[in-house]
């Protein structure tokens, strides 16, 4: 691997990680900034469209959830000049707000196409793939015990990460 390929892989990894932060912290400006204007986000039958349509759709689909965690592993990139593709295994955790509260865990993959324009990598196409998943009730007592001694995260600007100015300005 040459130095430019290592730099490109780091930039692409950062792009994928910024997406996870944007979704989990409901930072839709950040999410939008990661896509080229002519990109397509394909979430199957749930949604397929432009970045602007995707960002407009996100609040609707995320509103019933009080917590999401998108965790990426096994990232694989193939880079060819200013075009790259990536496959990322993900475990996506979702907890519903309404009673009876449920946890929805999805094991899947993101299949991405990236383009570098004017030296910047962004998504040109993003497609989700479902591999496995399950739903079970929230165990409220266990949740309360596990989180008793730490600050709690939230899906809005009350999350502790927003008090870190560099993280809060990630979309800039």
Automatic annotation (TrEMBL):
Q: Which Pfam families match?
A: SnoaL_4
Kindly give the InterPro entries that the UniProt entry links to this protein: NTF2-like_dom_sf, SnoaL-like
State the source organism's domain of life. Answer: Bacteria
- What segment(s) does the record annotate as region Disordered? 145-172
Please state the span of the N-terminal signal peptide per the UniProt entry: none
Q: Which residues form the SnoaL-like domain?
A: 5-127
Protein name stated in the entry: Nuclear transport factor 2 family protein
